[in-house]
Amino acid sequence: MNNKIEFLENPIISQMSSMGHDQILFCSDNETGLKAIIAIHDTTLGPALGGTRMWRYNNELEALNDVLRLSRGMTYKNAISNLALGGGKAVIIGDSKTMKSEALFRRFGKFVDSLAGNYITAEDVGISPSDMVWVSKETNHVVGLPGKSGDPSPVTAYGTYMGMKACTKLKYGSDDLNGKKILVQGVGHVGEYLVEYLSKEGAEIFISDIHQDTLSRISKEYGATQVDLKDMYDLDMDIYAPCALGGTLNDETITRLRCQIVAGAANNQLKDEDIHGRALLDKEILYAPDFAVNAGGVINCFSEVEGLSSDWALQKAQDIYHTIYDIVQRSQNEKIPAHLIAMKMAEEKINAVHKPL
Predict the structure, then answer these.
(1) Does residue 250 contact residue 280 with C-beta atoms inside 8 Å?
(2) Of 4, 35, 77, 89, which residue is the catalytic one?
């Protein structure tokens, strides 16, 4: 008789382990239609903070993969920004234009509250500060509320702008963006604020987005040139700024890119970290790692957690200039992809406190 117990490998737990995650909470409520996943990656430096994204994913596996990558990115983002926070993220599976309700967000708030402060949420793609007000009726573990630190988009855009200037300094010897041809892909909240900063500095701005009404409005307001989505990677430009969803740096697009710098606010810009960071380096394109350059939003949220001023948040976001300069300079000198340099720097900060990722 064989008394040996055989354990079947769970693919979700295996994926968690391979990426270093502490916890995943799957949330479902038939009455409100809520389907959500909360991923806590690491809490070595403090409670996990990261926004909630509402998106119409094709399936639950796609949502899981997204939240795992996003939450790990938050760990690196918070660490490299010297914030006493860990990394987490949440996704709500659904159409943000048709499925929102107070009941859904309050039910989500109860799930957040069940984590007892291990996870602090905020707005992200598809979510507004007013949605967070409904969440806050069920939990205190939420930031980015109206009347407090509010919408983090302006600070995210400012930090991205600072990182873009740092890359420009390294590439051209001056961080002046006047006359530089810059394509902003995705002109939602963050993208529009970034366009505003670039416009004030006299950049030649090109914009691309899936929403034609938004494109038309921003084009008229800032004098930006509209570019069709299918043509944007072939544009002769100095800087490409991805500010929508991730994965736009991939096998197809990198071969087409005609730019010197990639610096944008989108998360998970590299479709495959093992391939596409190296591809950018081989093509001599300077890359500002997404989790380092777009850290302004979490800096804004941290200011609310700690009761600090909006002026403090902007000043802290300005430091992104020096962070990106150091990362990209090391990448060029050591011939190592910039995202690996940034990840190593973040891991060193975490290891100094407690444990390796």
Answers:
(1) no
(2) 89
Average pLDDT score over residue span 182-188: 96
pLDDT bin (cut points 50, 70, 90) of residue 356 is: very low
**222, HSE (Cβ side, Cα atoms, 13 Å):** 28
Residues 206-262 have pLDDT tens digits of 999 999 999 999 999 999 999 999 999 999 999 999 999 888 999 999 999 999 999
Residue 277 neighbours by CB under 8 Å, 6+ apart: 270, 287, 337, 338, 339, 340
d(CA 159, CA 178): 18
CB distance 273 to 65 below 8 Å: no
Phi, psi of 296 (to 5 degrees): -60, -35
Catalytic residue check, 180: no
The answer to whether 173 and 329 are in contact (CB under 8 A) is no
Specify whether the CB–CB gap between 208 and 227 falls below 8 A: yes
**How does strand 52-55 pair with strand 86-93?**
parallel
- Name the percent of the chain in helix, strand, coil, to the closest 5: 45, 15, 35
Q: What percent of the chain has pLDDT over 90?
A: 82
Domains by residue range for the chain, with CATH = 11-71+85-136 (3.40.50.10860), 153-350 (3.40.50.720)
Three-state SS for 156? helix
User: Does residue 280 register a pLDDT over 60?
Assistant: yes
Q: Judge residue 163's burial from the number of C-beta atoms within 10 Å of its C-beta, 0-12 exposed, 13-18 middle, 19 or more buried.
A: buried
Residue type, 239: I
Q: Tell me whether strands 119-120 and 23-29 are parallel, antiparallel or unpaired.
A: unpaired
Amino acid code (one letter) for 285: I
The neighbour count for residue 196, using CB atoms within 10 Å, is 16
pLDDT in tens, 111-161: 999 999 999 999 888 898 889 999 999 999 999 888 776 678 899 999 999
The CA distance from 21 to 205, in Å, is 39
Give the pLDDT band of residue 8 (cuts 50, 70, 90): low
